[in-house]
Amino acid sequence: MYLSGLAAVCPPMVSPFTFGWSSIAHERVLPSAPASAAFESDNRTVYVPVLVPVLSVIRRLWWANGDTVNAANNVDCGVYASAGYIPGTRLISTGSVAQGTASQVQFVDVTDTTIPPGLYWIGFGCSTMSATFFRASASGGNVDQDAAYRFEESAFPLPATATPAEATNSPIYLCGFATTASP
Question: Where would I find the H helices in 26-180?
């Protein structure tokens, strides 16, 4: 969290890796740094919680493309409200977007969406497992995998309402939302 005087302000980019904004133990311990790796499964969506402590405006959604990209690979990134500590209703998403440049953060402008403090879930989906993205494994260490990760099969593009399952293997993708309109 960033402090300005006595008021907390939202950082310019928020992700499950933003210190002080994570609702789970991976903030303390990750077995490895994020690295480029293939997406898990065709048409899967993954969900990771983010604790937003201050009023924030989502202006762009983003993800870190991996070493291998193809314009035929489609990505969808969004933010979901929490529903009893699982992702619930989608608040905003990019819609299906072609994957961009290798090893670069890809930003997509969205309609400005104001969210109050609370628990939210970043939803991240891809059309194919041949696409690569930067991610870290949350397996091992003292990570509570149940808290760190949910997934949903046949959920691309992102569904309006999530119906996720718990996972035992929990890669955490480098993706999230931006509170600025440009870098």
Answer: 145-148
What tens digit of pLDDT does each residue of 4-44 get? 444 567 788 888 777 665 555 444 456 678 899 999 999 99
Eight-class DSSP state of 65: B
The dihedral over CA atoms of 25, 5, 15, 26, expressed in degrees to the nearest 10, equals -10
Record the pTM: 0.88
Rg (CA), the chain: 15
The rounded distance, in Å, linking the Cα atoms of 80 and 88 is 6
Of 130, 66, 71, 135, the closest CA to residue 97 belongs to: 71
Q: Report phi then psi at 25, rounded to 5.
A: -70, -20
Indicate the fold that domain 12-178 takes in CATH. Answer: Jelly Rolls (2.60.120)
pLDDT tens digits, one per residue of 142-180:
455 555 678 999 999 999 999 999 876 678 899 999 999
Domain range summary for the chain, segments of one domain joined by +: 12-178
